[in-house]
Amino acid sequence: MCFGFLSIAQRTYDALNETPLVEVLSLLEAKNEITFSYDNDNIENQFISIKAGTYTLQQYLQNVFSQSKLNFEFIDNRYILLTTKKRKNPMEYICGYVVDGNSGEPILFASLMTDISTSFAETDLKGYFKMDISDSDQVVTISYLGYESYVINLEEVSNDPCQVYDISVESISFAPIILKEYLADGINQTENANTVVIEPEEMNVLPGSVEKDVLSAISFLPGITSPGESLDGIHVRGGTPDQNLILWDGIPMYHTSHFFGTISAFNPNIIDHVNVHRSGIGSEYGGRVSSVIDIRSKEEITKKFNVGAGFNLTHLHLDLDIPLWKNSSLMISTRRSLTDIWNTPTFIRYAEKVFQGTKVEESNFNDPELQFSDEYKFNDANLKWMMDYGKNKFRFMSLGTLNSLNYKSDFEEWNVYSVELLNLRNGGANFTWERQWNKRYKSKLEFTNAEYKYDYNLGFKAKNNNPDPAFSFVSRNSIKDGGLNWNNEWIINETQDVIFGYQFTGNKTELDISIIDRQDSTATDFNFENRLHALFSEYSLKLPKTLQLNIGLRYLYQSNLKNNYFEPRIALVTNVTDRLKLKVSTGKHFQFVSQLVAFNTNNLGFNNQFWVTASNDPNNEVIIPVIESNQWMGGFIYQKGNWTLDVEGYVKELAGITTLSNGFFELNNEKFSSGNSRTRGIDILLKKRIKRYRSWISYSISKTKYEFPQISFEPIIASHDQTFVFKWVHLYKVKSWEFSFGIEYRSGLPTTAAMLVNDKIEYENPPNNLRLKRYFRMDGSIIYNFGSPNNVNGFIGFALQNIGNRNNILGRNYLINENSGGDIPTLLAINEKGLKFTPNISVNIRMN
Fold this sequence. Notes:
By secondary structure, this protein is mainly beta. The chain is elongated, with a radius of gyration of 33 Å.
C-alpha cells in the first residue's frame, strides 16, 4: 500500500457527534490500517463532529484536524505524526488586567492557564497578570469563582500583549426547570408541576383578547374562573378574590383592575413573566390562603433607546426603555383611558354591563347636551430603574393606578344638584438589592411600600352658589403597607438546594363611613393594625427522571394578636414511567387581611368591598378572625406524543370566614356570623398539538359549601360555587397571523329565593337554594404581526367577545315596586347580565 493510494481511495464513514478525538483516531487506524503517533496529553478534551459520507483519507483527516489543536503529517504510507499547531503570531508572554465587566473593578487572584503548555498564573491586588506561553498554546482561560470562564484566543491578540479583559458574573438559575408549553407558547409549567409560568412576549393570542393580558390568560387555567366576568374577581379552586396574593415586583396589590373589573391594571407590554401558584405554594409566600400570582416586570438592561406605543378601544399606552450609563437603564410606561374622550363601541358595552341596575346611565357619558357632564377615567404608570454592578443588582420600581368617576345629577324641582365622586387609587414602590456571592449562593433584600385608597363622596348642593353642601355622605377605606423581605438561596449540589429568609409586614387599615348635614353628623370608624414577622425555609431535592421533592416551613408571629402560627408545606412529583408522573402536595396557610362586603354604602348602586385586618380589639364593633386554610392535592400527568392529560384532585378547608366576607350578611338580616368552608374538586386538562395548531379542553367539577351555625344547621352552598366549568380553546398560527377561538360553558351561579312579607323582602333559608341558568359564551381573536428592516415591529389585533350575544345571567337581586299600578307593592327580580357582544381592536408599534 502506498501513500498516494491512501490519499485518493474513497471510503464511507458514519456520522460523528461530539466523539472524543482518541476514539476517532482508533476508528481511523482500524479502518485504514494506519498508525498515529502523538502525545496523549495533546488529545485530551477534544471532540469531533462530522457528517456521514464518502471521503478520501486526506479529506477526512482535514475535517478531523480542522476541529483540533493538532496538525497531521504523513511519515510514510502507514505512520502519521500528530503535532501541536503553531500560532502565526509568536509571543513569549501575555499580560493584562482582569476586571469585572459591570463595575470595572479589578478581580483579585483570578486563575489563568494555557491549553498546551499548561502554564499557570494568578492576578495580583490590581488585577494584573503576566505569564509565559509557548508557540503551541492556542488559548488562555481565565477562571474565578462566581464568574463565567473567559477564553483568550492567542491568535487574535494584537502586537500589544497587555490588554484589559472584562469577565461577567456567572448566571446561575435557581428556579426549577420549566416544561415548555403547558397550554400554549408562553404558558409553561415548572418541573415540580406546582407553578404555571406565563411569559407574555412568547404567548399566543387568546380568545377574546387584543393584548396579551396576564389576568385574562390566568382565567384559562383549569381550576381558575371569574364567575362575574371580572378580571379582579378571579376565584381559584373555591377561594374568593381577596384570598389571592397578587404581587407586582414584590409589591402587594389590593386593587387589580380598571373600570370595575373589565380591564387589567397591569400593562402587559412591560411584563417579563408571571408565576401562578394554585397548589404546592412555596414557603417564601404567605399572607393568603388560596393562591399566589407573582407578576414580574422586565429585567433586561437595555443598551439602546426603545419606544412602544399603541391603542385599543379603551385606552392608549406608551412605553420607553432608556439606557443611562454603563449597565444601567430606565423603563417608563403609562396607559390612559379613552373613556372621557370618546364613547367607543367597546366602552359602551362595558358600561352597559358595569352600570346596569345603578343610577348611572352609560348613555350619559360625555353627552354635550347634558347640563352636568358625567366623567369616568383611569390611568396607570410604571417606572423601573435597573443597574448591575459586579456581583450586585440594584432595582427600584414604582406603580400607580387611578380610577375616578364623577357623576352629577340635576334635581330641578328642589333647585339642587348632587355630585358623586368615586376614586380608587392603588400603587407602591420597591427597592431591591441582590448579590451573587458565588456560584452556589445568592441573597436578595427587598423593601416594599404599598398603598390603597377607596374614597366615595356624595354631596347635595343648592344652586344659589352656597359653597357648603346641604348634605354629604362619605365612605372611605385605606391601607398603608410596608414590608421587608430577606431571601437567600443556596445550591448544595446539582440535586439539592435550600431557600431561607425573613419577612416583615406592617400595615394600617382604616374604614370610615360618615353622614354629615348642617344640623348633625354621624360617623363609624374602624382602625386595624397588622404587624407580622415571618421566618421561612424550604429544602428541594431533584433527582433526574425520578422525583422532585419540596419540603418547607413558615413560622409567623402576629404581634398585635400575640399569637404564633406554623405553616408546614410539602410537594412531591415522582416519575412512574417516562410518560406518567404522579404529584401530591399539602400545606397550611393563614390570612390576616381580607375583604368584607358592605351593601348600600354609596348612592351609585355598587356593592362595595372593604379591606379589613384580623382583630380581636374590643373597641371594634366586629371581631375579624384570622382565616386558616388546609389544602391537599393529588394527581397525575400523562404525556404521549403530542397529547397531554393532566388531572388534579384537591380539598381545601377554611376556618375563620365570615358572613361579611361572603355576601350572606344582608341575607341573614344583617347578623354577623363566622364559620368554615370546604371545597372539593377535580381539574382535568386534555391538550393536543399538531404542528401550528393547538387545542385543549379543561373540565373542572367542584363543590364549595359554607358552615355558619348561626344561620343554618345545614351547609350552605357558596355564592360563587360552580359545579362544573368546561372550556375548549383552539389556537392556530401561520406565518404572521394568529387565530384563536374558545368556548366556555358552566353551571349557573347560586341565588336565593325571596318573597315580600309585610312590605319587606324576606329571603328563604338556607340561602343559595336555587341556581341561575347555565352560562355559555364564545370568544375569538385575530392578530397580524408585522416588522421591517428598520427595527420597527408590532401587531394589529381584532377581537370579539360573546360572539353569539348570549344573554348570560350572573346574579339576581330583588326590589320592591311601589308603582305597580295597585295599592299593594310587588316584588321585582332584577337580573345582573353578562357582557353583550363586544368588538375591540388594537394597534401596537415598537421601535428599537
